[in-house]
Write a structure and sequence with these properties.
The chain is mainly alpha-helical. 60% of the residues lie in helices and 2% in strands. Helix 5 runs parallel beside helix 7.
Length: 180
Amino acid sequence: MIIHSSYGSLAYRGIATSSVQRQEVRTAAAMVADPAKNAEKISLSRVGEALAASDGGLTQPTTPAQEKLILAASLDPQSAEKVASDMAVTPSAIAWDISGQRGVGDGTAGFARKLASSGEIVDDNYISQFNGKSQVVDAQRRAIYDTEKAKGTDPLLILAKMINFTNSQSKDYLDATGWG
């Protein structure tokens, strides 16, 4: 004996879906009725606090490499202090792409100056403008370090503030330094 249903399998799926939706509505209503009963306690680790210390206005979000740096520094306060101190005194520099350097198209001995981040070929004017801007950025980053250190701020938070400050710089600066 062969039995054929007049309902297709989609009808059964629809019944199951509407049943799940009704269950979700009841669960949501219960949570609204008594939010204290369903509240969770959440606390941030030192790493989370450091990442949350953002001042906003970032040109780019924190990168995975920056998050790893903060995580590694969070394991040891002395390490965090060393990384923050080094970051405060290290001058900005252009990150160059030196791959395939055999001269510029006409076979001369010159080299193409390409940014590592984008491959953009830059001239002396670009380099001069970068040098002027980078001195200002370096001085501001150093001021953040000195000010926060004088306040007694946790070195991990100082490091996060300096990373966020650098992330808030112009796209040109970030491209030139390869910061992103």
